[in-house]
Each structure stands twice: as C-alpha cells, then as structure tokens.
Amino acid sequence: MTELSENNLLELRNNVLSVQKSIGQKVIGAERIVRFMFIALMSENHVLLEGVPGLAKTMLASEFSKHLGMEFKRIQFTPDMLPSDVTGSIVFNLETRKMEFRQGPIFANVLLADEINRTPPKVHSALLEAMEEKQVSVGGNSQKVPEPFLVIATQNPIEQEGTFPLAEALMDRFLFRYILTYPTRQEEMEILRSTSTYSEPPGSILGPELVMRLREEVSEVYASEEIMNYIVDITRKTREHDMVYIGASPRTTAKFLKAAKANALINGRNYVIPEDVIYICTEILNHRIIMKPEAMIENGADVISSVRKIIRRIVSEVEPPQ
C-alpha cells in the first residue's frame, strides 16, 4: 500500500467536510455525528445512536448512505420478529423446483437497525454475527454480507416497557454510542426554514470502492509508541477508577487505536496526535463503563451525565504525550 500523498489527504478531508456540510443542511446540527459515522465506517465498525423520537436518526442514516453512493436498507425492529426476517430464509422456487436462499434486508452496505432494543435476543444474535463476522448463517450455510458494511442502530432511552435490553456483548460491538440531544433554539429555527426550501438530491461523493480503499489506508496511519501507551493508559484507567465497577475491555484498546487513526486520516494527517484520541473518548467509552451504585448517588440519577463526568476525570488524570 502506497503512502497517501498530501494532495490525497487534503482531498479526503475536503470530501468528508463536503458530506458533513451537505447532510448538515438537511439534518440541522448533524455535522459532528457524521464525523463519527465516517470514523466507524473507515475503521470497519458500527454506530449506536441513542435519543428520543423525532431527532431525525432515520433521515441521518439515509442521507449518509446516499452521499456515499451505497445501498441503504432499514429494519424497523418489533417484538414479534424472527432472525429470518433480518437474514433471509430458504424458500422453494416453484419454477425451478429447487430450494433457494432469498436475501433479507441485512444484505446492504448501510443498514439502519431502528429501535434495536425492541426485538428479541435471537434477532440480536443474527445481527451480531453479521456485525462481527461479516456473514449470516441460514440453513447451515454461511452467506457473506456486502462490503463495505455499516450498521447504524438506534435506540429510544424512554418507554422501556416491552423492550429487550442489549447484551453487553452486542453493545461492545458498537464502536460508538452517540447520545443525541434536542437541538438549540437557533438550530430548531433552521429546521423550520429548511422545510420550506428545495434542495438538490445529493450526488455520490465517495462510493463503495473508495471507502474500501480508505479502510486499507487507515492501517497505514502512523501511531507512535507514546500514543499507543496513552490509549492503553486511558483504557486501563477505566478499570481502576474508584467509581467504576467494570471498565473497558482489551478489545476496546484495539478499536480505540483504529478509530484514532481514522480520525487522523479525516483530519488530513497520516499520523495520530493526542487530540485524535481525546476527540473520540466519550463516545467510545460511554457504553463500556458500568458504574458502581455509589457513583449514581454522588452524581445524581442522570446516568449519561455521570458517565461523561467520570470519562472526563479519567482523561484528565492521564498525561498525554508531548
């Protein structure tokens, strides 16, 4: 793999900024979320979006796939779903008189798993196999999902009746958990203005082939020994903190480094600096930390704020490389 030239790095950064700006015109305030979706896509990982209904999570995923020129499919998860509703099933073809595999909606480049916590664990398992192994098993045979493959899952933090909380194993497969909040007053005014204006359909800016090439380039980004020590120290600190019951796993450390490299590439660099690591800390750690009960007593009932406070404290206690 040849090293990316300065012109190629600049072109990549401009393309990402162009996608962020274009999507931001349709989904007001989405620029930062799009950055994290790019990092997950380039590092062969997935994203979990969490927020109340009406924050344009579905529209965001759809617009992202359109701008990349990739196939997009959406699954609305419900309690009565079966794994075959996601993966597909073996059916009898009356014309050929043979059994054949009919693909399910999981066979797409970008899959929106809407309200993922409303479907049973059996369906979670089918999704987990595709996310981790890039394949699904149906009728004793394995079927590869398309590449690149990105799962953007959503979950509603309210109305927990009749839901199936995600197992820790599945939560850990998501590189980021991005918490969406209500827009500011100014952003909400922009939303109203944008609904009355016509916008041109987006053109493909990257495309599946370039995304696959960028995934290869991520591994070529240089990370010094000091940067790797910095990532390891932050991860280990989550296990040693007095308010944390269970911290991030060693698998997180590997994902952390790859995500930092992808962030550096998007920033137009072929080397990682401490700011690349700090930028992604909260979103990569907030669903990998289980707090002790006393942490909730000390910080109040707001779980998200408590976790963010602990992550900020952990990062501040680890000395970044100079």
Could you characterize what this model shows?
- This protein is α/β, with parallel strands linked by helices and 322 residues long.
- The protein folds into 2 domains: 6-195 and 204-210, Rossmann fold (3-Layer(aba) Sandwich), CATH 3.40.50; 221-317, Helicase, Ruva Protein, domain 3 (Orthogonal Bundle), CATH 1.10.8.80.
- Helix content is 48%, strand content 16%.
- It has 13 helices and 11 strands.
- The strands form 4 sheets. The chain has a 5-stranded parallel beta sheet. Strands 3-4 form a two-stranded antiparallel ribbon.
- Strand 6 (135-138) and strand 7 (141-144) form a beta hairpin.
- The longest helix has 21 residues, at 6-26.
- The protein is globular and about 70 Å long.
- The model has no long low-confidence stretch (mean pLDDT 87).
